TrEMBL record:
The organism's taxonomic lineage, starting at the top: Eukaryota, Sar, Alveolata, Colpodellida, Vitrellaceae
Keywords per UniProt: Mitochondrion, Oxidoreductase, Pyridoxal phosphate, Transit peptide
Alphabetical list of InterPro entries matching this protein: GcvP, GDC-P_C, GDC-P_N, GDC_P, PyrdxlP-dep_Trfase, PyrdxlP-dep_Trfase_major, PyrdxlP-dep_Trfase_small
Compositional bias annotation for Low complexity: 35-58
Gene3D superfamilies reported for this sequence: Aspartate Aminotransferase, domain 1 (3.90.1150.10), Type I PLP-dependent aspartate aminotransferase-like (Major domain) (3.40.640.10)
Protein name per its UniProtKB record: Glycine cleavage system P protein
Catalysed transformations (reactions): N(6)-[(R)-lipoyl]-L-lysyl-[glycine-cleavage complex H protein] + glycine + H(+) = N(6)-[(R)-S(8)-aminomethyldihydrolipoyl]-L-lysyl-[glycine-cleavage complex H protein] + CO2
EC number: 1.4.4.2
Organism: Vitrella brassicaformis (strain CCMP3155)
Cofactor needs: pyridoxal 5'-phosphate
Location of the region described as Disordered in the Swiss-Prot/TrEMBL record: 33-58
SUPFAM superfamilies from the UniProt entry: PLP-dependent transferases
Segments forming domain Glycine cleavage system P-protein N-terminal: 69-497, 537-799
């Protein structure tokens, strides 16, 4: 076997320790403290772990690169010290005080033990991956091979500053990724000819569904104007997801021929066409746009960004919304995702547009500063009034696409497009010379649909597979062939040989002169783009590798990520993203697989997916899992759809009431509305628990129409509620199902499970609990686990059979959603095993309780459990400072930047508060450093309260302090520059992280909304 190390791209995560590393003895103590004998492995990992788990082998002969000791932050000495601070003798005692006995797991997870070598598990996954057979793909359908420039791969994709960063809610320490996302938005606006774009959506099919929903809501979401046409020449996976979305919200979706449709019907709110369509054909849709606009309806266009470099942009022929995928801009196919969908529209739709928008504002000194604009649309604010349940994007993938566009520039993109189109032209000339016909005429870009009669499609497909090529089956005697950036003239010749073999029984060579006739790489005149695009300086300056490397470093230096310091975001679980888990995603067998490749070529992916699903079933206590949802919010929506479909199947489709605690994630009510539910909100009691009496009253009141309860556990207030079993029973007794939000699953691992607690369905955030990185705001994966009765209603797929159950509603374009990043969670679980997962939860709980205990003398703790403990997170109450000296939670958040930290979750789930989650990956020294920072900030607040510093001019109100400000000769502050910028010893010792802008002026950005680059980039400043 080839050595794994020699064939893989290695990511290097550099950790800067605050003190000397613990001795190996201390590390062993920590592992032994958490570990006990576990059941034997039930999956393929068994063969790899026998030697390390054999008790007859001396410990010093066992592998030294076990993952658990690298993942868990505190060593044995630190664990003992933290337990002493808490006043308990052991982890077991702490867990007894934290997790209610009624739900505590009595048995052990049926997984292998936690002694897995990182090298061994990587080798095992490599063996699984090699079962995949990667053919050259000519399937297309929105998924294409491409060339990821090595400089982008090395400086961005495998760079922890980019992939471990959080969503840019704290703009002052996120200017790098904000600028990159602004470049992305500008690129989309320029290519589509529209006026505004967002910072990406989850996938192309989701974007289509969001476009339809936005158009419907723009008419007032009226039942009298709820008809939406989808052209039957749209990719089938897009149509299927739109069908799923339309039904629960009362839309009438018609799939048909747009040529024959009567757009004058008053009930029509919009229509979707594809350009080029799924057959590859380009069509002029000006007449469709005019007909829709004449009756107050909107035109939605699904398009290909590479085609738009040569073809007339939809904005120029009347489109109101344009969407698609930027996957072919440097992002691997990855068996379906993650990919950044683009979404652009006219300005009048701006405030209804789903997703995030990056805008330009100014900081307190008047300098240019970027921020997330229109944040009032965020789902945690608008809840059931939200325009969408989307609360994330595909930021990391959007940044790849943006850098790809910058690196190639408009001329480079056109060169790639001309070459792709030229290959398609050459292929068309060849097959026509054999007597085959295409349905496209000359109006195509990269895809041709070929009538191969009398040859059967099965025969042609098999001939091509024998040449390691996959083409698309489109009917008994019809095939599709799509070209991309990686294809060559030799590939065209090989294809033609296969087509000749099918027609003549032998691989007859085509006359080269025939192949060259009229091969120009230029679009037909009727569709040729005449307008320029991407004229901004940023897209025309950086086409050398040296400059590209420097630009990405320039942006990287502006962002604080996990490789700088801990990010203690409550509910967001910013834990270690292990390098050994990250490496496999760029392996050829995982990265370059088309999602619609035949099953015999995808055995490795299917095995890995099966095993990961089995792991997740074991961990959650459920009977089945779907990995299709590609975000937590999509998981919520999918789980509720499964509940509704099940209730319909037993004659209870009238059940549509969803009970949601007011403390729930904002996406919960938004998802419930999307699933066609009516929401009944219930309060929390004084301890932050669900008001059980109110729940019982509401459940009884709606016992005839109760569909579900959405509950988060541990609660969004950071405690294990004692009454959770009773809560579930109340809902079941009144005919409902229990949906559990899995955002806080990190505290359950190995200690309890949704199945034990009594839930019927739970979504999991693999980008939280199971170590998939946040990527500056995406990717994410939000699979759902369900009990047996809900299993038949898990998502299916219109092209690729998924699982063995009947096909449920499809929620994403690809069969297994963002499949390329699933190996991260497979590795994470496989390396940790039963003990390691349990240890992760135990250590997360220990770290949180230790921090809460340290901070309790200085801050009010908002909520605690029955025995005074928190779960894996806790909430600090900042409201008293607003009354005493005018300091609010945002002020504390900005001041933490001066200390080198990202702020905890701010103003949620309660206002005027900070929610802190340290995770299991941080050691005691880092926890203490953060606690010390908070205590020092409290002392600074005391100086404001005493009048030593004025309320409007102090280090907290003026935070963060930039290098430009500190170095300025103008310093009119009642405190020193050192107090402002270097308030703690470690800021000197570890190196200062400088926010590159001062506090951002949000109101200015709202009043002067600019969401794309100007003609001049700030890169040269």
């Amino acid at each position: 076997m080839r050595a794994v190390a020699s064939r893989r791209l290695a990511g290097c995560v550099c950790a800067r320790a605050a003190k000397l590393p613990p001795s190996s003895q201390h590390r062993r103590i920590a592992v032994q403290h958490f570990s006990s004998a576990a059941s034997s492995p039930s999956t393929s990992t068994s063969s790899s772990s026998s030697s390390s788990s054999d008790v007859s082998v001396p410990s010093f002969l066992r592998p030294s690169d076990t993952f658990l000791r690298r993942h868990i932050g505190p060593d044995g000495t630190e664990v003992a010290d933290m337990l002493k601070v808490l006043g308990v003798s052991s982890i077991e005692e702490l867990i007894e005080q934290t997790v209610p006995a009624s739900i505590r797991r009595k048995d052990k997870l049926n997984l292998h033990e936690a002694t897995q070598s990182e090298t061994v598990m990587s080798t095992l996954l490599d063996k699984i991956a090699r079962q995949n057979v990667v053919h050259k793909s000519f399937i297309g359908m929105g998924y294409h091979h491409n060339i990821l420039p090595p400089v982008i791969k090395r400086c961005l994709v495998t760079n922890p500053t980019w992939y471990t960063a959080y969503t840019p809610y704290q703009a002052e320490i996120s200017q790098g990724r904000l600028e990159s996302l602004l470049n992305y938005q500008t690129m989309v606006v320029e290519l589509t000819g529209m006026e505004i774009a967002n910072a990406s959506l989850l996938d192309e099919a989701t974007a289509g569904a969001e476009a339809m929903t936005m158009v419907f809501r723009s008419t007032g979401a009226k039942p009298t104007k709820n008809v939406f046409l989808v052209s039957d020449r749209t990719h089938p996976q897009i149509i299927e997801v739109m069908k799923t979305r339309a039904e629960p919200i009362g839309m009438k979706l018609i799939v048909g021929d747009h040529h024959d449709f009567n757009f004058s019907k008053q009930s029509v709110c919009g229509a979707l066409v594809q350009y080029p369509d799924t057959t590859g054909t380009l069509e002029d849709f000006r007449g469709v746009a005019d007909a829709l606009h004449a009756h107050g309806a909107q035109l939605v266009v699904s398009s290909d960004p590479l085609a738009l470099t040569l073809a007339t942009p939809p904005g120029e022929f009347g489109a109101d919304v344009v969407f698609g995928t930027t996957q072919r801009f440097g992002v691997p196919m990855g068996f379906g995702g993650p990919h950044a969908a683009f979404f652009a529209t006219r300005k009048e739709n701006m405030r209804r547009m789903p997703g995030r928008i990056i805008g330009i504002s100014i900081d307190e000194r008047g300098d240019r500063a970027l921020r997330m604009a229109l944040q009032t649309r965020e789902q945690h604010i608008r809840k059931d009034k939200a325009t969408s349940n989307v609360c994330t994007s595909q930021a990391l993938l959007a940044n790849i696409a943006a850098m790809y566009a910058i690196y190639h520039g408009p001329e480079g993109l056109k060169d790639i497009a001309r070459r792709v189109h030229g290959l398609a032209q050459r292929f068309q000339r060849g097959i026509e010379s054999m007597g085959y016909t295409t349905i496209n005429g000359e109006n195509f870009f990269d895809t041709l649909t070929v009538d191969i009669a009398p040859v059967s499609t099965d025969v042609m497909v098999e001939i091509m597979r024998s040449r390691q090529m996959n083409i698309r089956s489109m009917g008994p005697t019809m095939v599709g062939v799509a070209f991309d950036e990686t294809h060559t003239v030799a590939d065209v010749d090989t294809l033609l040989e296969g087509f000749a073999l099918a027609r003549y029984g032998q691989p007859v060579k085509v006359d080269p002169s025939e192949l060259s006739k009229n091969v120009t790489g230029e679009m037909p005149a009727a569709f040729a783009r005449k307008s320029s695009f991407m004229t901004q300086q940023i897209f025309n300056l950086i086409q050398t590798e040296t400059e590209m490397m420097r630009y990405m470093k320039y942006l990287e230096n502006k962002d604080l990520a996990l490789n700088t310091s801990m990010i203690s975001l409550g509910s967001c679980t910013m834990k270690l993203n292990p390098a050994s888990s990250m490496e496999p995603i760029l392996w050829n067998e995982f990265a370059n697989m088309h999602p619609f490749s035949p099953p015999e070529q995808t055995k490795g992916y299917r095995q890995m997916i099966f095993e990961l699903s089995k792991y997740l079933c074991t961990i959650t206590g459920f009977d089945a899992v779907s990995l299709q949802p590609n975000s937590g919010a999509t998981g919520e929506y999918t789980g509720l759809l499964a509940i509704r479909k099940y209730q319909e199947s037993i004659g209870e489709g009238h059940r549509d009431v969803c009970i949601i605690p007011k403390s729930a994630h904002g996406t919960n009510p938004a998802s419930a509305v999307m699933a066609g539910m009516r929401i009944k909100a219930i309060d929390s009691d004084k301890q932050g628990n669900v008001d059980v009496a109110q729940l019982e009253a509401v459940a009884k009141e709606h016992s005839e129409d109760l569909s579900a309860l959405m509950v988060t556990y541990p609660s969004t207030h950071g405690v294990f509620e004692e009454e959770i079993v009773r809560i579930c029973q109340i809902v079941h007794d009144n005919g409902g199902q229990v949906y559990m939000d899995g955002a806080n699953m990190n505290a359950q691992l190995g200690l309890t499970s949704p199945g034990i607690i009594g839930a019927d369905v739970c979504h999991l955030n693999l980008h939280k609990t199971f170590a998939i990185p946040h990527g500056g705001g995406g990717p994410g994966v939000g699979p759902i686990g369900v009990r047996k009765h809900l299993a038949p209603f898990l998502p299916g797929h219109c092209i690729v059979p998924v699982g063995t159950v009947e096909r449920g509603p499809q929620v994403t374009g690809a069969p297994w959603g963002s499949a390329m990043i699933l190996p991260i969670s497979w590795m994470f679980i496989a390396m940790l095993g039963a003990q390691g997962l349990k240890a992760s939860a135990e250590m997360a709980i220990l770290n949180a309780n230790y921090m809460m205990t340290r901070l309790k003398p200085h801050f009010n703790i908002k909520f605690a459990g029955a025995k005074g403990r928190c779960a894996h997170e806790f909430i600090l109450d900042v409201e008293p400072f607003k009354k005493s000296c005018g300091i609010v939670e945002e002020d504390v958040a900005k001041r933490l930047m001066d200390y080198g930290f990202h702020a905890p979750t701010m103003s949620w789930p309660v206002p005027s508060a900070l929610m802190i989650e340290p995770t299991e990956s941080e050691n005691q020294a880092e926890l203490d450093r953060f606690c010390d920072a908070m205590i020092m900030i409290r002392e600074e607040i005391g100086k404001i309260e005493s009048g030593e510093w004025p309320q409007d001019n102090n280090p907290i109100k003026n935070a963060p302090h930039t290098q430009k400000e500190v170095c300025s000769s103008d310093w009119n502050r009642p405190y020193s520059r050192e107090v402002g910028a270097f308030p703690a010893p470690w800021v000197h010792m570890r190196g200062k992280f400088w926010p590159t802008v001062g506090r951002v002026n949000n109101p200015f950005g709202e009043k002067n909304l600019v969401c794309s680059c100007g003609d001049v980039s700030d890169y040269s400043n």
